[in-house]
UniProtKB/TrEMBL annotation:
Organism, scientific name: Corticicoccus populi
Residues in PAC domain copies: 1-37
Organism phylogeny: Bacteria, Bacillati, Bacillota, Bacilli, Bacillales
Domain called Histidine kinase: residue spans: 41-261
Tree of life domain: Bacteria
Compartment(s): Cell membrane
Name assigned to this protein: Sensor protein kinase WalK
């Protein structure tokens, strides 16, 4: 807290009183320091691929371009680093759009269970061999108002993470959907049997650029922004997202969202 004192002086020159103004600077300071940290993180995240690209380009200039074996490898590294930077910049733009956007995102009413099943189908196609998907999803409809694109992005991110942060054999991702009719809410659970996250770090995975294992996450090509973006999207749906994890056993991501109760009467109408 910052305190400003002013004296009140009468025409006669006598001091009549004091005014103390209390400013709460802690909130402002927190925002400033978060912003500084964010800029430092962005700079660092961009510098890493740039320095790497620079050294490969230098090597190519110094003669590697003539080496039929080396040149394609060096070029593919620079290509990968460029892709990483593009992903990073796209994620940053999305975050900044969400930070600024006062307007609501466009939503449609869908049966969440159909929506989720389609997404799992897609993953199942590309991970036939290495991942087992288990669905505990009710047959009956649960209607929710969501943005297809954005909610799809959240689920893509969470499911990709579940696969990414698991050891290579016996990967298993379980889905659980439950409606709470009393509160007009629903909860989705996405559980993996992967590496897990140390207890004191679980809550931090939704922070921008936070990664439990920097080197591993980088190798997997992530930007460290996926869950931060997911959290913003879920909050824009009046929802909540959180995680539970046991190191060495696996992680569960929970997403709680509002849902619609369709009255019997609505069907008759
Ligand atoms: P990225 O995957 O690009 O690093 P995310 O924001 O998606 O960024 O995730 C942040 C971090 O949270 C990851 O780097 C990883 O350390 C941790 N994490 C996320 N999901 C899981 C999971 N299912 N199991 C273990 N760790 C996870």
């Amino acid at each position: 807290i910052r305190i400003n004192f002013s004296t009140i002086v009468k025409d006669t020159g006598f001091i009549n009183g004091y005014i103390a103004v209390l400013h709460d600077v802690t909130e402002q300071e927190r925002i400033d320091s978060e912003r500084r940290e964010f800029v430092a993180n962005v700079s660092h995240e961009l510098r890493t691929p740039l320095t790497s690209m620079r050294s490969y380009i230098e090597a190519l200039q110094e003669g590697a371009w003539q080496d039929e074996r080396l040149a394609p490898r060096f070029l593919s590294v620079t290509r990968d680093e460029t892709d990483r930077m593009i992903r990073l910049v796209e994620d940053l733009l999305q975050l900044s759009r969400m930070d600024n956007e006062a307007e609501e995102i466009e939503k449609d009413i869908v049966d969440f269970n159909i929506f989720l099943n389609r997404i799992i189908d897609r993953f199942e196609m590309t991970h036939k061999e290495d991942v087992k998907f288990v669905r505990n999803i009710p047959k009956s409809a649960i209607f929710t108002e969501i943005s297809f694109d954005k909610m799809g992005q959240v689920l893509d991110n969470v499911i990709s993470n579940a696969i990414k942060y698991s050891s290579s054999n016996n990967k298993r991702v379980e889905f659980h959907v439950k409606q709470n009719i009393l509160y007009n809410r629903m909860t989705v659970r996405i559980k993996d049997n992967g590496l897990g996250i140390p207890a004191n770090k679980v809550d931090r995975i939704f922070e921008r650029f936070y990664r439990v294992d920097k080197a591993r996450a980088r190798k997997m090509g992530g930007t460290g922004l996926g869950l931060a973006i997911s959290k913003e999207i879920i909050e824009a749906h009046d929802g909540r997202i959180w995680a539970n994890s046991v190191e060495g056993e696996g992680t569960t991501i929970f997403i709680n969202l509002p849902c619609e109760t369709i009255e019997e009467d609505d069907w008759d109408a």
